[in-house]
Amino acid sequence: MTDSDVVLVEGVRTPHGELLGSLADVSAVELGRTAVDGLLERVEIEGDRIDWVSLGNAIQAGTGQVPARQVVVESDLPDETPVTTINEASGSGVRAIALAADRIVAGRAEFAVAGGFESMTNAPWVLPEYRKGRRHGDVTLKDSMIFDSLWDVNLDIHMGEITERLIDRYGEGRADSSDGGDGDTDVRYDLSREAQDAYALESHRWAHEAIEAGEYDDEIVPVKTGSGTVDRDEGPRPESTMDDLAGLSPAFRRDGSITPANASKLADGAGAVLLADAEAAADADLEPTMRLVDYELVYREPDEFNEAVGDVVEELLATTGLDADELDACWINEAFAAQSVYVMQRLGIDRERMNPLGGAVAYGHPIGASGGMLAASLAHQMRREDGVERGLVGMSQGGGGAIMSLWERM
Q1: Cβ contacts of residue 100 below 8 Å, gap of 6+?
Q2: Would you state the pLDDT for residue 290?
Q3: Whole-angstrom distance, CA of residue 338 vs CA of residue 55
Q4: Helix (H, G, I), strand (E, B), or coil: what is residue 262?
Q5: Burial degree of 326 (CB within 10 A; 0-12, 13-18, 19+)
Q6: CA-wise closest residue to 101 among 311, 322, 278
Q7: Average pLDDT over the chain, rounded to an integer
Q8: How would you class 15 by CB atoms within 10 Å of its CB: exposed for 0-12, middle for 13-18, buried for 19 or more?
Q9: pLDDT bracket for residue 129 (50, 70, 90)
Q10: Distance between CA atoms of residues 73 and 64, nearest Å
Q11: Residues 278-293: what's their mean pLDDT?
């Protein structure tokens, strides 16, 4: 798809809501509808011009039949609009965008809405195997928020423990590294607790500064709740200090270094973008913001989903003939500060280009929604800042994978 004719016309997102926060009484589907309708209000195109919708949603237990279809029916789009629900864990939103782009490239659509939606707050507890009944003994509830999005079923461990293993392999002063695919079994990075906490603090500070400066005002669509209207991101805690973070206990391992403060927050939200064939957009007198150059999807062993992020960026750069220093903004989801620090050091990306307005460590990571939300944020950054010509949007995803898209200013 290198040098495709797929363009992004507009992107919007809801605010990020903290777990049990201001968006707690809003369902995942309602968040998705809010983003889609907010998108349609921004563009001068009739709903019946939308040929296809693809929306990511990762925590589907109790959400109801075909969640993305529910979004379309509840939205201002015609009921006849074709739609697909995408579930690839954290990568769901970017994968939805990529599939929409594929459809446009194949000539099967001129205009498509893509993105994702998630309410981690409203994910239910479930009773596996209870349909078969229990004659005696305890019954254990399983948290679908964790099991459906944060738990590697193949390894039967949390994604946080997998990231502790990344630190084991590559961290300075930790266990001997195994060959993780970087081509050098002796590679070491500074993945210390201090490096992770310092990254996290910057994410919180930059996020707070961006919110206060109104950097997100143009991309956010307000969400109506029973308690009022929410139009501002929750999450950032700029008052935190290194001493505050140092006092927190590890979350996944007694001797580990990942804490609730240097991992992404649990959150609610939605994001949607309008993609189009460049010629169709011009014929409709639309002014796109950026063009999709290409995307890549890679997988490794499930234990190496963090390393896959480095792989997918390297493959994308190799395919497009670019160097990492030619990327002006990298909106790469902050699953864990350790992962972000690893990716920056492995690829040589400056901190100022890595989530320049803060990331999921500060705002939260509403699993299936993040791809659409990040794509909207990059598009609006390109509108505001003349020096941003190329940017990445992507992330790791459960099962050992990563997906990444490369965009350039129109």
Answers
A1: 52, 54, 109, 112, 113, 114, 275
A2: 98
A3: 28
A4: coil
A5: exposed
A6: 278
A7: 95
A8: buried
A9: confident
A10: 13
A11: 98
Are the C-beta atoms of 359 and 378 separated by less than 8 Å? no
Q: Residue for token digits 């699993």?
A: 367
DSSP-derived secondary structure letter, 88: B
Q: What is the DSSP letter of 368?
A: G
CA distance 8 to 275: 5
337-347 vs 193-212: helix axis angle to the nearest 10?
100
Q: Using alpha carbons, select from 369, 391, 372 the residue that is nearest to residue 381.
A: 391
Contact 217, 253 (CB under 8 A): no
Residue type, 386: D
Nearest Cα neighbor of 122 from 332, 258, 270, 272 is 270
For residues 20 and 224, give the distance between their C-alpha atoms in angstroms, rounded to a whole number: 16
DSSP code at position 123: P
CA–CA gap between residue 379 and residue 398 (Å, rounded): 26
Whether residue 178 contacts residue 335, with contact meaning beta carbons closer than 8 Å, is answered with no
Closest residue by Cα to residue 344 from 199, 173, 148: 199
Name the residue among 202, 236, 248, 263 with its Cα closest to residue 21: 236
Q: pLDDT value at position 165?
A: 97
DSSP states of 186-222: T--B---HHHHHHHHHHHHHHHHHHHHTTTTTTTBPP
SS3 category, 48: helix
Helix axis angle for 337-347 and 305-320, nearest 10°, is: 40
User: Could you tell me how many residues make up the chain?
Assistant: 410
DSSP state of 171: B
pLDDT band at residue 181 using 50, 70 and 90 as cut-offs: very low
CA-CA-CA-CA torsion sign (229, 235, 236, 241): positive
Instruction: Give dist(CA 291, CA 286) in Å, integer.
Output: 13
Residue 49, number of CB atoms within 10 A of its CB: 13
Report the pLDDT value the prediction gives residue 186, as an integer from 0 to 100: 78
Separation CA 148–CA 352 (nearest Å): 33
- For the chain, percent of residues with pLDDT exceeding 90: 92
The burial of 164, by beta-carbon neighbours within 10 Å (0-12 exposed, 13-18 middle, 19 or more buried), is given as: buried
Q: Which three-class secondary structure string do you get for 141-152?
A: CEEHHHHCCCEE
- Which pLDDT tens digit goes with each residue over 326-365? 999 999 999 999 999 999 999 999 999 999 999 999 999 9
